[in-house]
Design goal:
Elements (H helix, E strand, L loop, with lengths): L8 E4 L2 E4 L9 H10 L22 H4 L4 H8 L2
Antiparallel strand pairs: 1-2
Length: 77
């Protein structure tokens, strides 16, 4: 292959690589921008259903409690 053009190369931790003309390398900022644009993924196994939040404002069992004073007043004639 005597007619092949000589392309510039650069040494990387993986070894000698050809630098294609007109192509810029991917920088750390580019990688971080792609990661930041992705939606947040759950840290646990996505095949397992998420547990409901049953604390404070979202505690549905605590909302079902009856006020004992109101119940005592209902019993009085």
């Amino acid at each position: 292959m005597t007619g092949a053009p000589k392309l510039p190369t650069e040494t990387t931790p993986e070894g000698e690589q050809i630098v294609a003309p007109g192509v810029t390398p991917i920088t750390l900022a580019d990688r971080l921008a792609v990661r930041a644009a992705q939606p947040i993924a759950p840290k646990r196994n996505p095949n397992v259903a998420q547990k409901p939040c049953d604390l404070g404002l979202f505690d549905m069992d605590a909302r079902r409690q009856i006020d004992w004073i109101d119940e005592a007043r209902k019993g009085k004639p």
